[in-house]
Design goal:
Its EC number is 1.2.1.27. This is methylmalonate-semialdehyde dehydrogenase (CoA acylating). The protein has 2 domains: 270 residues, Aldehyde Dehydrogenase, Chain A, domain 1; 185 residues, 3-Layer(aba) Sandwich (Aldehyde Dehydrogenase, Chain A, domain 2), CATH 3.40.309. It is built from 16 helices and 23 strands. The chain has a 7-stranded mixed sheet, sandwiched between helices. Helix 3 crosses helix 4, helix 3 packs antiparallel against helix 7 and helix 4 runs parallel beside helix 6. The structure holds nicotinamide-adenine-dinucleotide.
């Protein structure tokens, strides 16, 4: 059986823990590989490699860094099909979707290629007589990144390209369920000329994460994952004096106003609720149907899902793949089973779905729950599966109040033809990313991604300008080249003249 090892100091390393975790193909339910699980000692080795590499990389020229990144962009692009296949084999998502996440991840590499623009700094000349002030930004040192299973390539690419472009070195701890894409990304970085130790990958579980959170040589932690773990990461790493950005889970609402194009809204709801089997932090999981739109929308969603093809992600005919684990599939099913008892109407029940020839896969079909209310489990929890809840609201105000009462605030969307209503919504809604007739408003790489409330702990969103700020710290230099006539002792507080 293939073993996936760590990547430390520019080469694969077995590690000393001797522990391994299973890597399962979700379409078959069969363990095809195993992954090394790092001990604290293995993490220490990766951090030491990163710390040693920082001495040269942190002072390397911008020309050298961008040269590597431009080559890296081309290499990842050239290998995108191969990376997508690795993602499908371990995550289960369909090939086109896996390819899409590599492309979205490349946006951040492209942003990193232009780091020269972002690190220009600021200069004020003659702030006082013969005095200039320069504001510069410098790297932090060793940065750790901890990533979730649902985007094995894109979320790591949200982090390390920008971090290393800023002059940091990096230790990535990908999800142990989907380790191969991150390894391939690290190998390609080495091929692009990234010096050994600048990017390291350690696989592991809580033990590895905890060591990163407390390690004295780790300056900052970027985390993306579920809300309880994000909260824990933020509290623990902060307590150890580190800069932290911890992006958490979500329950994204889509508000459909009576004047919306309901065909467009139904397309959007189906794509955003059931794409990637609902395992996206920006998936739409609640459709708030305003003023009589619920019945026609439900009919249109049923029409569109009737022919949906569920199957293995490497079959080009499949539109939706399996869930990540059997346990997760059973948990998702339990929300559908429990919904009727709590008063919801189960319009579509996707539980019990099977795929011929793939009986061991973690399958579930699409579910649609109507007349859901905020007290129900299916509304309250992040289900992270292909389950769409419909909540009926009489008015815009009622729908908005529901969304704003949610403890999460990742993404949200409004569907309408009324520019005034859309403008009101974007100003009044409490969420970090808003779509107007766009159901999954993931910002492009040169803007920043992040939610509000329990969807993000810390004060920096990820990538874009916030990413550059997170991976650097500011310094302001005040310079004076005195003229001989300026001599003289003056104990007063310096003021400008
Ligand atoms: P998770 O929180 O279980 O795991 C994320 C990472 O944390 C993994 O690397 C994992 O090994 C590690 N981890 C898990 N338990 C830990 C513990 N007790 N202590 C320390 N580390 C631990 O998340 P997941 O199931 O891999 O991913 C799905 C979740 O991620 C969903 O909640 C989804 O909404 C969220 N997500 C959020 C975003 C975002 O941008 N806000 C993006 C993608 C996914």
């Amino acid at each position: 059986m293939q073993t996936i090892n760590h990547w430390i100091g520019g080469k694969p390393v077995e590690g000393v823990s001797g522990n391994h975790g299973p890597v399962v193909n979700p379409a078959t339910g069969v363990q095809e590989k195993q992954v090394a699980l790092a001990s604290a000692g293995d993490v220490d080795a990766a951090v030491a490699a990163a710390r040693d590499a920082f001495a040269a990389w942190g002072t390397s020229s911008l020309a050298k860094r961008t040269g590597v990144l431009f080559r890296y962009r081309e290499l990842v692009h050239a290998h995108r099909e191969e990376i997508a296949r690795l993602i499908t084999a371990e995550h289960g998502k369909v090939h086109a979707d896996a390819l899409g996440e590599v492309t979205r991840g490349l946006e951040i590499v492209e942003l990193a290629c232009g780091i020269t623009e972002k690190l220009k700094g600021e200069l004020s000349t003659q702030v006082s007589t013969r005095v200039d002030v320069a504001a510069i930004r410098q790297p932090l040192g060793v940065v750790a990144g901890i990533t979730p299973f649902n985007f094995p390539a894109m979320v790591p690419l949200w982090m390390f390209p920008l971090a290393v472009a800023c002059g940091n070195t990096f230790v990535l701890k990908p999800s142990e369920k989907v380790p191969s894409a991150a390894m391939r990304l690290a190998e390609l970085a080495a091929e692009a000329g990234l010096p050994d130790g600048v990017l390291n990958v350690v696989h592991g579980d809580k033990a590895a994460v905890d060591r990163l959170l407390e390690h004295p040589d780790v300056a900052a932690v970027s985390f993306v994952g579920s809300t309880p773990i994000a909260r824990y990461i933020h509290a623990t790493a902060s307590a150890h004096g580190k800069r932290v950005q911890a992006l958490g889970g979500a329950k994204n609402h889509m508000l459909v106003l009576p004047d919306a194009d309901l065909d467009l809204a139904a397309d959007a709801a189906v794509n955003a609720a059931y794409g990637s089997a609902g395992e996206r932090c920006m998936a739409v999981s609640v459709l708030v149907a305003v003023g009589g739109t619920a019945d026609p929308l439900i009919e249109k969603i049923k029409e569109r899902t009737a022919a949906l093809r569920i199957g293995p992600g490497d079959d080009p005919a499949s539109e939706m793949g399996p869930l990540i684990t059997a346990a997760h599939r059973d948990k998702v099913a339990s929300y559908v089973h429990g919904a009727a008892a709590q008063g919801a109407e189960v319009v579509l029940d996707g539980t019990g779905h099977t795929v011929e020839g793939y009986e061991g896969g973690h399958w579930i079909g699409v579910s649609l729950l109507d007349r859901v209310t905020p007290g129900m489990d299916a509304y309250r929890d992040e289900i992270f599966g292909p389950v769409l809840c419909v909540v009926r609201a009489e008015t815009y105000e009622e729908g908005l109040a529901l969304i704003n009462a949610s403890p999460w605030g990742n993404g949200t969307a409004v569907f309408t033809r009324d520019g005034g209503a859309a403008r009101r919504f974007q100003l009044e809604v409490q969420a970090g990313m808003v779509g107007v007739n766009v159901p999954i408003p993931v910002p492009v790489g040169y803007h920043s991604f992040g939610g509000w409330k329990d969807s993000l702990f810390g004060d920096h969103h990820i990538y874009g300008n916030d990413g550059v700020h997170f991976y650097t710290r500011g310094k302001v230099v005040t310079t004076r080249w005195p003229d001989p006539s300026d001599r003289g002792v003056d104990l007063g507080f310096p003021s400008n003249s």
